[in-house]
Write a structure and sequence with these properties.
Elements: H1 21-31, H2 41-66, H3 71-78, H4 80-111
Length: about 110
């Protein structure tokens, strides 16, 4: 007389769009490491904090190695600042393209 009650299982769909490589390039081109947040949060944090730290350490080492105590060592260390800024920008551009492609590949692989 008593029959077990069964409820149909609901099917859930998670809809996620792929990320655009073009938008990633434009955001990173205009905003540098801040534009990298579109592609990857961890990568953006590394480029914003890790790369400047490495540049500071490299600038100190370069300045100390170039000349002990003279002004040319300081000048050599100061020339590292724009070079590190350019390096951060270029690293961000390349990293954003790689991160967006990796995200899209993972997303499409989970569908198959």
């Amino acid at each position: 007389m008593n029959q077990p009650v069964t409820t149909p299982q609901a099917t859930h769909f998670i809809v996620t769009q792929t990320k655009s490589v073009g938008i990633a390039i434009l955001l990173t081109l205009f905003f540098g490491p801040f534009g990298l947040f579109y592609a990857t949060i961890g990568g953006a944090l590394f480029v914003m904090f890790g790369v400047p730290f490495l540049c500071i350490v490299g600038g100190i080492a370069f300045g100390a190695a170039a000349s002990a105590g003279s002004t040319t060592g300081l000048l050599g260390a100061l020339t590292m600042i724009p070079l590190c800024g350019l390096a951060m920008w270029l690293i961000s551009l390349v990293w954003s393209v790689i991160a967006v492609n990796a995200f899209n590949n993972r997303l499409l692989a989970s569908v198959r």
